[in-house]
Amino acid sequence: MTGRVLMAAAMLFLLAFLASPESFASLFKPFTRNNAPAIYTQTGLMSLTLSHLGLVLLAVIASTLIAVTLAILVTRPSGREFLPLARTVTSVGQTFPPVAVLALAVPVMGFGAGPTLVALFLYGLLPVFENALAGLTGQSPQVQEAARGMGLTPRQRLWQVELPLALPVILTGVRLTAVISLGTATIGSTVAAKTLGELIIAGLLSSNTAFVLQGGMVVGILAVLIYEGFQRLEQLAAARIGQG
Amino acid sequence: MIEIQNLTRIYGTTAVVKDVSLTVETGQIAALVGTSGSGKTTLLRMINRLVEPSAGRVLIDGKDTAEIEPHLLRRQIGYAIQGHGLFPHRTVAQNISTVPRLLGWTQDQHRARVDELLELFQMEPADFRDRMPHELSGGQQQRVGVARALAARPDLLLMDEPFGALDPVIRAKAQQDLRDIQRQLGTTLIIVTHDMEEAVTLGDRIAVMDKGELLQYGPPSEILTTPATSFVSDLIGTGDRPFRLLSLTPVAEIIAEGQAEGAEIPREASLRDALAECLWSGRDRLPVEGGGIVTLDSLRAQAAPTARAAE
Fold first, then answer.
1. CA nearest A140 in B: which residue?
2. Interface contact B89-A165, CB threshold 8 A
3. What angle do CA B76, B16, B223 make, to 5 degrees?
């Protein structure tokens, strides 16, 4: 209950702040020096937030689609031998620093949202892939046996049994990826993607802690809200299959 | 009629099923008995091709199962397993209607079928239809598992230790219900069990398997009175033999003329029940419902294998 109240409060605060940042100027004034402005006004905070969320959403959808597809392929009898390869690819995606991806992608794709999307996509593959793998392989052998014994084709077993049963675990992977991407997306502003990182970079360049704080705060609250939202979804999905 | 002809399954270099042949008549129950690793489950799974035979073939009503696509074959054969294997994300009704929906029945058809089966298994349709499997007791889950196997009115039902996860009281009831339902529907049933008691209770024929080989195949009385090998007699257990033999015959078959004191015993009760009642109440004759008596002497005679052999 208290959790729900806190979440609602955080969401209201965030919406109020994005709708009218100036009203909160006095809150950030103590973090500025030499009469610098307390609120970032170069670009509208709301539009930065929306474009930040849009980038993350696109990247998470792409990572999820590819990672789940990959997990399905390597758990089929014909694709089992590609499991080590898929593991390596997704692990490299996770360990390769996103900043390096940006640096490599810019010469090819130019400045803007493109390189950031690529970096986020690669960075987000591993959690979804590993979870989807766990969800698809860790299923009750009796349920699998019954599904085969009743004459479901492999495709029917995948769509009607395996994926629905793996859903809660897959959602956990998507949640991790979404939260990680939300934070990581800020570095996209170094290559001119429109994200909340713009505040943080502007703050760093002009030694204005208030800007850095604002950027960090918005990203932080968004992350907490998304985390909670996904957890609710996972609980619903798990309760449906009797694991709640 | 199910004809299993020279069926063999080899994994690597070991044969888990060796050249097994047996025939199950339409409407009969065949129980495959053996210890774990005897190959009984593999034999069962070769019938619906969950395991492909290395050699030999299975004919269902004269048709070679190897000529039918495996998933289409399986939709014609009911299959129930230990631990029921219900789909945890689907309601009772959705679970039961799995095969009818695969076969393209209309919604009205499979809804009616679900209600019919729930009633057959003494579960109130309005109450149980929309429950999830985890909201059922173990016995109810098991019944839904069997109902699901019977949903598309298969002529053949395969069961692999279906009662293995039930406690003894519920198990006895489940066996009785299965027997009644099987007689009512006329379904041919092949059931795998490690429990000789269950095999004797249910089977019209018992197949005893050991190390992949079929040691003996015959009616329960034959298995009990003339076991083919020492392994078969070990499996029966000499201590319980006379009682198992008595449990095969209903009281109605040995009714004699006469009068007796005390409580009546139902005609369909087994001789074992009658013996137990004699011993417990200290009587040497019991009245039977609808007239006649059974005597302790006639029970004693029935418990000896020689009496059977003479018949």
1. B85
2. yes
3. 80
